């Protein structure tokens, strides 16, 4: 059985490809993949376009089933997928459209430090981060919460941990949704989920999660970079993690509970991983309450790790983090479903936007963009791989018109984990990274091999594709100099 | 057919394919494959008896649910099932017993964290000489 996609991909323009809704039975809308000529070749090499077509079958889907240039094969939805459904028209919410790692996301922290100050100390910095930030399979956190505190954390998100001393009020201003989805309902979170995530708030996890020390190497949009506080040669810190075991279990529970729900509502699905419920049904509302609680957990998780990273830098540079200028630039979710307003055929509608490996990308003037950035737009954080680059982009008006305010979330995998391990045989990825100027530490035996730079698409191509499509604009390129992984 | 498993590539995730002569014989290698995906999971001698019975109408989903229980025991209790004995595995019911042993984290070598056993491409199908089960784990 071939893993390649052999269905239609009709070229619309330089950066968009259509899967017509006549491709397979049940498609209600077209599929659209954002990619340039270079990227589309690798996209055909797995079944992710088939998943774009499957998502087009969901009841109440509006516009098109979308995929960003970092698209790759997932389960149910592709990674890099965006789908909007209209709750008022029977539109559904699908846990598979959010993923197991609910509110997996990225946070960027700027500093006043320069490369010249940090490069000589990068090894002790990385080692100290590795010792301080719990990472790896099943690692519990340094910060413990009792059940009552966990309920507050799930309800209030980042604010709860900031009020507990793990961060600054201004961190909340530059976190998507201020780090709290207000309709979170801890009562919808199972005791199993709470048990699984109880000691994991403030932990990195494993897989593709990381904490990275970076240097700003290129600025493309000086106005936006200035608004974000970014300058050439400056040191930044990027954190990629999510809701850990609590979120995984919320998704597991939801998929289990929704198994027979599509049949109840007369919904036919091409893949059972796409199980769903009408947003307005009691089953849909229950998942929304639990999913939002897990999303708040994830924001609290990244907030605590921000605090730990500030402690490490403060200890090494013997200055408080405030004097090191360690301000959060932004924090974005890239595995989430949210109710947002969009104009559809001249009418403003509240839609349920699924972003599965896709980042919100609101333009200048949008009321949900922090005041400090409202003149330029929302920072869009696009991590690449640990050897090359990551990008800061800024949301553009075309995203509101074409992609329900969404953009790519990373480079996207090119090689499978197995292929990456085979490619790393006989090599030391750690030494190769060091030769390239990156100090890396990983907890897992295969972590660096599976996550080696060649396992990912070139994030520069992905950033160019969304820039050319007009849904986000390139602002600054960041190069890693130190990384810790689970 | 000797029961066996193989791990196969699935981009960011990992696939497991198990083959055996009978439905019940799929369960032990499917169990071993789950732990192999996590890495080298070493246990201590301390063990407690463990049994599980699940009912349903789809053997692939029953197998997935059983594996999800093992993942939960690993994640929350740092425990691994050994001495797997399948008392019954039909499309309507799975009954398994074994010994749940404490994982020794210091002696183990974890390769990756498994978030879930997914429903994506989940299947058990007849093949020449037996059955083949497929499941994908989310990494």
Secondary-structure blueprint:
The complex is a heterodimer of chains A (486) and B (139).
Chain A: E1 10-13, E2 16-19, E3 31-34, H1 37-43, H2 48-55, E4 61-72, E5 79-85, E6 92-93, E7 105-114, H3 115-118, H4 122-132, H5 147-156, H6 158-163, H7 169-173, H8 191-197, E8 210-219, H9 222-228, E9 234-241, H10 244-257, H11 261-264, E10 277-278, H12 282-317, E11 328-333, E12 335-344, E13 347-356, E14 358-360, E15 379-382, E16 390-395, H13 397-402, E17 406-408, H14 417-424, H15 429-435, E18 439-442, H16 447-450, H17 459-469, E19 472-485
Parallel strand pairs in A: 3-4, 18-19
Antiparallel strand pairs in A: 1-2, 2-3, 4-5, 5-13, 6-10, 7-9, 7-11, 8-9, 8-19, 12-13, 14-17, 15-16, 16-19
Helix pairs in contact in A: 4-12, 5-12, 8-10, 10-12
Chain B: E1 4-10, E2 13-20, H1 23-38, E3 39-40, E4 43-55, H2 59-77, E5 79-89, E6 93-103, E7 109-110, E8 116-117, E9 123-127, E10 130-138
Antiparallel strand pairs in B: 1-2, 2-10, 3-7, 4-6, 5-6, 8-10, 9-10
Helix pairs in contact in B: 1-2
């Amino acid at each position: 059985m071939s893993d390649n996609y052999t269905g239609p991909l009709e070229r619309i323009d330089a950066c968009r490809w259509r899967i017509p809704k006549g491709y397979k039975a049940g498609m209600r809308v077209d599929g659209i993949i954002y990619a340039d000529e270079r990227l589309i070749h690798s996209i055909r090499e797995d079944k992710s376009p088939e998943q774009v077509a499957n998502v087009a079958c969901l009841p109440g889907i509006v516009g098109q089933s979308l995929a960003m240039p970092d698209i790759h094969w997932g389960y149910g939805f592709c990674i890099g997928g965006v789908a909007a459904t209209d709750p008022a028209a029977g539109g559904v919410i699908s846990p598979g459209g959010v993923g197991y790692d609910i509110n997996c996301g990225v946070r960027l922290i700027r500093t006043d430090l320069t490369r010249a100050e940090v490069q000589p100390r990068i090894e002790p910095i990385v080692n100290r981060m590795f010792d301080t930030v719990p990472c790896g399979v099943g690692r519990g956190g340094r910060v413990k919460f009792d059940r009552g505190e966990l309920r507050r954390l799930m309800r209030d998100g980042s604010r709860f941990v900031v009020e507990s001393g793990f961060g600054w009020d201004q961190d909340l201003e530059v976190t998507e949704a201020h780090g709290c989805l207000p309709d979170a309902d801890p009562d919808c979170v199972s005791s199993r989920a709470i048990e699984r995530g109880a000691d994991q708030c403030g932990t990195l996890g494993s897989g593709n999660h990381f904490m990275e020390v970076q240097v700003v190497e290129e600025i493309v949009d000086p106005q936006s970079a200035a608004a974000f506080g970014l300058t050439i040669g400056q040191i930044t810190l990027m954190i990629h993690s999510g809701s850990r075991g609590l979120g995984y279990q919320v998704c597991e529970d939801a998929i289990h509970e929704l198994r027979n729900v599509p049949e109840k509502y007369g919904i036919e699905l091409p893949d059972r991983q796409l199980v769903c419920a009408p947003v307005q049904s009691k089953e849909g509302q229950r998942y929304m309450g639990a999913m939002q609680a897990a999303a708040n957990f994830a924001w609290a998780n990244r907030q605590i790790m921000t605090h730990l990273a500030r402690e490490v830098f403060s200890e090494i540079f013997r200055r408080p983090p405030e004097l090191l200028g360690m301000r959060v630039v932004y924090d974005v979710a890239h595995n989430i479903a949210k109710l947002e307003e969009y104009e559809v055929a001249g009418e403003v509608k509240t839609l349920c936007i699924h972003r599965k490996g896709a980042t919100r990308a609101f333009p200048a003037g949008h009321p949900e963009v922090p005041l400090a950035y409202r003149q330029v737009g929302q920072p869009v954080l696009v991590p690449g791989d640990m050897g090359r680059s990551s990008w800061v982009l800024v949301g553009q008006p075309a995203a509101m018109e074409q992609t329900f305010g969404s953009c790519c979330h990373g480079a996207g995998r090119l090689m499978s984990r197995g292929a990456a391990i085979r490619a790393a045989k006989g090599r030391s990825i750690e030494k190769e990274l060091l030769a390239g100027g990156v100090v890396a530490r990983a907890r897992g035996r295969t972590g660096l091999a599976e996550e080696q730079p060649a396992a990912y698409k070139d994030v520069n191509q992905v950033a160019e594709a969304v820039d050319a499509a007009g849904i986000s604009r390139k602002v600054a390129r960041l190069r890693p100099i130190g990384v810790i992984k689970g | 057919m000797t029961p066996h498993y193989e791990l196969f590539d699935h981009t960011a995730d990992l696939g497991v394919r198990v083959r055996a002569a009978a439905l019940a014989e799929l369960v032990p290698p499917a169990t071993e494959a789950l732990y192999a995906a996590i890495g080298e999971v070493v246990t201590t001698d301390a063990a407690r008896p463990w049994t599980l019975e699940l009912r349903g109408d789809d053997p692939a989903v029953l197998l997935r649910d059983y594996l999800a229980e093992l993942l939960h025991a690993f994640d929350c209790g740092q425990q691994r099932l050994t001495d797997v004995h399948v008392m019954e595995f039909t499309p309507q019911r799975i009954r398994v017993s074994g010994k749940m042993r404490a994982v020794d984290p210091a002696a183990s070598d974890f390769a990756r964290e498994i978030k879930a056993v997914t429903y994506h491409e989940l299947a058990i199908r007849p093949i020449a000489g037996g059955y083949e089960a497929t499941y994908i784990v989310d990494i």
